[in-house]
Amino acid sequence: MGFRCGIVGLPNVGKSTLFNALTATAQAEAANFPFTTIEPNTGRVGVPDSRLERIAGIVRPKNVVPAQLEFVDIAGLVRGASRGEGLGNRFLAHIREVDAIVHVLRCFADDNVAHVEGSVDPLRDADTVETELMLADLESLERREEPLTKKVRGGDAGARAELDLVHGVLEALRAGRPARTAEAAAERRKAFAMLHLLSAKPVLYVCNVEEADAAQGTDLTARVAARAAGQGAASVVISAQIEAEVAQLDDAAEKAEFLESLGLGETGLARLIGAGYRLLDLITFFTAAENEARAWTVRTGTRAGAAAGVIHTDFERGFIAAETISFDDFVALGGEQGAKEAGKMRLEGRDYVVRDGDLLRFRFNV
To answer: Which residues partner with 287 through β-bridges?
Structure first.
């Protein structure tokens, strides 16, 4: 199961610099003028997880494969994108394809880097992007409204339920609230997701600051954090410039020393991924054998049968059972054999809800 995070924001806020640093590539051209990014750049990032390292230290497999997140660097948005201004139509289409929005906000002043709005104001910039997403959603739902109304008049019960859902979201949008604030009750969530609304996607605000402010943040980043808390979103403070410098260091000890000198305990990537996991309600399970130790990402509440399908569809189709050991037991008892001897390995069925840190071995027959 892959998770895609779209990096968005106004032009010249540091999106492409951040993308390059996060993916340790130079795929995205970074330059001081709008619309440098036209086609989205995509990069996969290994998720840092010390638990996988400890598992590998016990199993000593030939290969160690971390979980993966995909970042997509999407063209900078401007006012009027919902009406096709700038690269608006392409921008909006690319957002529809991601699971979450990583919204980069400029929280630094630099006379050498032009700001499309003429001044630094991250809350205004956030409003600009959110408004364009909401306007696009409003137009999309208003196009649905009339055909659904005609179906309801014809006695279509399914259309009645969908129209009620559309009206609830339209009410929120017309009141200036994003679609995610109108998310449906549990039994309607699938129908809500099928509306494919841009402003329904989870948002992680990334405050891009100067190097000196990376550890403590600023008044601007505090204002963004307050906004995020009020929306049920998330925020992190990152210096894209620091991340770019860290990406150039190959030695782990050298990276740690550099971060420590700046008052940082971990990279911005690690903090961003941690915030992203919490925002998307993701957990990690592991598989470990002589050939490979690997981390896998699923949503909280995923059952064992579906988790098996993340590895291979045959595993889910022919699922028999999941041999399950908690991470703590696996480490404390020196691996699978010790856990078995101590009675800490369980056989779980298809409907077992996978827990964060579980080590799973699937029995299946196709």
So the answer is: 294
| Mean pLDDT for all residues in the chain | 86
**Alpha helices, DSSP H only, in the chain?**
15-23, 50-59, 88-96, 122-153, 157-174, 189-193, 219-231, 240-247, 252-261, 268-280, 304-311, 313-317, 327-332, 336-341
Cβ–Cβ < 8 Å for 237, 266: no
pLDDT (tens digit, 9 = 90+) per residue, 77-134?
A: 655 544 544 444 566 777 888 889 999 999 988 776 656 666 889 999 999 889 988 9
How far apart are the C-alpha atoms of 327 and 355, rounded to whole Å? 10
The burial class, CB within 10 Å (0-12 / 13-18 / 19+), for 224 is buried
Residue whose structure tokens are 């609830």: 168
Q: Roughly how many angstroms between the first and final C-alpha of the chain, as a whole number?
A: 21
The model's pTM is 0.81
Angle at 144 between CA 140 and CA 150, to 5 degrees: 165
Q: 319: which 2 tokens?
A: 């699922």
Q: What are phi and psi of 158, to 5 degrees?
A: -65, -40
**How do strand 63-65 and strand 292-299 relate by DSSP bridges?**
parallel
- Tell how far CA 321 is from the center of its chain: 30
Q: Which amino acid is at 338?
A: G
Question: Are 5 and 274 contacting, i.e. CB atoms less than 8 angstroms apart?
Answer: no
